[in-house]
Design goal:
The complex is a heterodimer of chains A (about 160) and B (about 575). Chain A is about 25% helix and about 40% strand. Chain A has four helices and nine strands; from the N terminus they run βαββαββαββαββ. In chain A, the strands form two sheets. In chain A, strands 5, 6, 7, 8 and 9 form a five-stranded antiparallel sheet that branches. Chain B has about 575 residues and is an alpha/beta fold. The longest helix of chain B has 15 residues. Classes of the chains: A alpha+beta (about 160), B alpha/beta (about 575).
């Protein structure tokens, strides 16, 4: 069982995310993360899905997704040289005497502090999953109030867009 | 022109001459336009009857069935029928009414999110929120239902969209390109198939519903004539190859014919045409024919390696594949040399015929055999679901094209009667024979009203064992004869029930009346219901216990008193 990243290009139609996520779950596959957003084309949405499965299972889920009328193209970016990023916002307890410790950690991770109040800070970081996991781990000692993660987005290296891969 | 009129005009342009449906508040404008058009409407007595009717119509004609229903309960009553059509790949266009756009999401009267509800059981569905989207949606929906692997498509139209007036733009459908590049080209896979058949000692063809869907029956006959490869069929492939001497060995799977299942487990190359390797065929898919080279041809790429791993997966329409394969085999002067294998198959056919005991009580198999003997020409044969369905699959030799209609994938009790009704509308003037059970018949019995109204030539034989036969059989075999809630202690008088609807009713209770009563039924020109009282204890044999392999059949073989495993 390995995590596969599928880049699913879809028509910008109502309910398309429900169709995709519904199909994956009713065919008994688990979605690890899902991220959707607009693209370079106004009528196209790109959904990046991370699913677990062996090669045969991933082929099956890909073929099932490809049958959906609203799906334009699916690329398995796991098999392509590519960059992946995730964005996280972390609200962490930061009483005045602890702030400098947290600032040090933020520097080391090349993260950013985007909001401060008397008791907490909000830290923003983008990077791959491991880096984000590591920051969350280190900040645990200071008391994490909440974490929001976007799920992974992936883009291939090289000149071609996914729709032409 | 309003939205409703546009929809009706669209259907007329597509050649639709018949719609099954049931009106209601949200579709009043649609029915107003329908009532002023050339399209005939069949008012069923329940929406489930309408959708199964459209399904039966689609299956016997190969055309897209059309079904209308109103919002809320009208739409939700269609669900079983939509799921049924989805699993058996029948092309149906469903148009449901919806509450007005401004009322959506407010739990309005007769509001149900039918697009959300049906999403897992349609090829695609639409909620048309703008009048101006109608042309493009209709054009796309019509194409989606028919193209590739057929299936049901639903369009949900709010009341105000039916009523809204507009100048509608022209819509053109552009077929989508393949979304995933094929790993192997068709040409390459044909070469691999040719190589496999060249090496094969014991090849076998498994014909499925895809042969019927692609209209490849004649081509398959030619292919068989040229290659001499024996054929077995799935339930959905029944009728794709005539069941006569030298034709199909019959159905494979859980209740398949012994020779067909033995051939399946004994073959070294399996040419599987338009099948989906259902669990009723494979048992445990992990152990299915581990030593056999399977060439799996299907138009739907998602069927390849879904249930069973196959050596040579081919994405193709069966007709196109067979055309190419046959010309390739002719080109290289292919000569069949499967003598010993054909002799073995013949020996199995002779050694293990289907067998049942006759006695004082009528047996379902006797009735099916007698009807098959007496019918003239090639009638459309329709079944409901359960024991009688398997007996028909085993005993009724279906002839002609698109002449076997059954609920294969979903196993929908109540499908039979409305599907037979739809079949009779699809093939006017032809005889339709329906076999059903006393359980399934009561689920959609109201459609007798339509049978009577149009005097449809449907001969309905109720194989009446006063119980849910298949449930009873499994309770006997696998639950220590604990017949929990499967035996009917009270049932209607089906003869009187038929007569109450204005349909001729007959009763067949004794073996001595067999030939005479069936003759009387078949000679009657209009609809007939024959209440056939049969032995409650009769089981469908052979049976492969769940998870078993094709050769692990339990049956009562000739000369044996008890059920035993085939040896």
């Amino acid at each position: 069982m390995a995590a596969h990243t599928l880049s699913v290009l879809v028509e910008n139609r109502p309910g398309v995310l429900t169709r995709i996520s519904g199909l994956i779950s009713r065919r008994a596959f688990n979605i690890e993360s899902i991220a959707a957003g607009y693209t370079e084309e106004s009528n196209m949405t790109r959904i990046t899905i991370v699913v677990n499965g062996n090669d045969q299972e991933i082929e099956q889920v890909t073929n099932q997704l490809a049958k959906l009328v609203d799906v334009i193209k699916i690329v398995n970016l796991t098999k392509v040289d590519s960059l992946d990023r995730e964005l996280v916002l972390i609200k962490v307890k930061a009483l005045p005497e602890k702030r400098s410790d947290i600032v040090d950690i933020v520097d080391i991770f090349r993260a950013r502090i985007v909001d401060v109040n008397r008791e907490t800070m909000v830290i923003e970081l983008s990077g791959d999953q491991d880096k984000i996991d590591a920051l969350c781990e280190v900040l645990k000692d200071h008391g994490i109030v909440e974490i929001v993660r976007t799920g992974k987005i992936v883009i291939s290296r090289g000149p071609l867009p996914a729709k032409e891969l | 022109m309003n939205g409703a009129e546009y929809i009706i005009q669209f259907l007329e342009k597509k050649g639709v001459d018949l719609v099954f449906g049931y009106p209601g508040g949200a579709v009043l404008a649609l029915y107003d336009a329908l009532g002023r058009s050339s399209i005939k409407h069949i008012l069923t007595r329940h929406e489930q009857g309408a959708i199964h009717g459209a399904d039966g119509y689609a299956r016997v004609t190969g055309k897209t069935g059309v079904c209308f229903a109103t919002s809320g309960p009208g739409a939700t009553n269609l669900i079983t029928g939509i799921a049924n059509a989805y699993l058996d790949s029948a092309p149906i266009l469903v148009i449901t009414g919806q509450v007005g756009v401004d009322s959506i999401g407010r739990d309005s009267f007769q509001e149900a999110d039918i697009v959300g509800i049906t999403m897992p059981i349609v090829k695609h569905n639409y909620l048309v929120k703008s009048l101006y989207d109608l042309p493009a949606v209709l054009e796309e929906a019509w194409n989606v239902a028919q193209r590739g692997r057929p299936g049901p498509v639903l369009i949900d139209v709010p009341k105000n969209v039916f009523a809204g007036v507009a100048d509608f733009p022209e819509a053109v459908f552009t077929p989508p390109n393949r979304k995933i590049p094929l790993k192997n080209s068709l040409e390459k896979q044909i070469e691999r198939a040719v190589a496999a058949l060249r090496e094969a000692q014991k090849p076998l063809i498994l014909a499925g519903g895809g042969v019927v869907a692609s209209g490849a029956e004649d081509l398959l006959a030619e292919f068989r004539k040229h290659t001499k490869i024996p054929v077995v069929n799935t339930l959905m492939g029944k009728g794709a190859v005539p069941e006569e001497l030298g034709g199909s060995l019959g159905m494979v799977g859980m209740h398949g014919k012994p020779a067909a299942n033995l051939a399946l487990s004994g073959c070294d190359v399996l040419l599987a045409l338009g099948v989906r390797f259902s669990d009723r065929v494979t048992g445990n898919p992990q152990n299915f024919l581990p030593a056999t080279c399977i060439i799996h041809v299907d138009i739907d790429p998602a069927e390849l390696s879904k249930n069973v791993h196959t050596e040579i997966p081919v994405v193709s329409d069966v007709q196109k594949f067979l055309t190419l394969l046959l010309s390739r085999l002719k080109e290289e002067g292919f000569k069949p040399r499967y003598g010993p294998w054909l002799a073995q198959v013949d020996a199995w056919v002779k050694q293990y015929p289907l067998h049942f005991e006759t006695g004082d009580l009528l047996k379902p198999q006797q009735i099916i055999n007698e009807v098959a003997k007496q019918v003239t020409g090639a009638p459309v044969v329709v079944t409901d679901v359960g024991q009688h369905q398997m007996f028909v699959a085993q005993f009724f030799p279906v002839q002609g094209k698109r002449n076997f209609i059954t609920s294969g994938g979903l196993g929908t009790m109540g499908f039979g009667l409305p599907a037979a009704m739809g079949a009779a509308f699809g093939r006017p003037g032809e005889q339709v024979v329906l076999f059903t059970g006393d359980g399934g018949f009561q689920m959609t019995v109201q459609e007798l009203a339509v049978m009577a109204q149009y005097q449809l030539p449907v001969k309905a034989f109720i194989i009446n064992n006063s119980c849910l036969g298949m449930v009873r059989q499994w309770q006997e075999l696998f639950f220590k004869e604990h017949y929990a809630h499967s035996l009917f202690s009270c049932g209607p008088d089906f003869v009187k029930l038929a007569e109450a609807y204005g349909v001729k009713g007959l009763r067949l209770a004794q073996p001595a009346e067999l030939a005479g009563t069936i003759r009387e039924a078949l000679q009657h020109s209009g609809p007939v219901v024959v209440d056939c009282l049969v032995d409650q204890g009769e089981n469908v044999l052979p049976i492969i216990p769940p998870g078993g392999q094709p050769n692990e059949m339990l049956g009562r073989w000739r000369g044996e008193a008890h059920v035993s495993r085939i040896s």
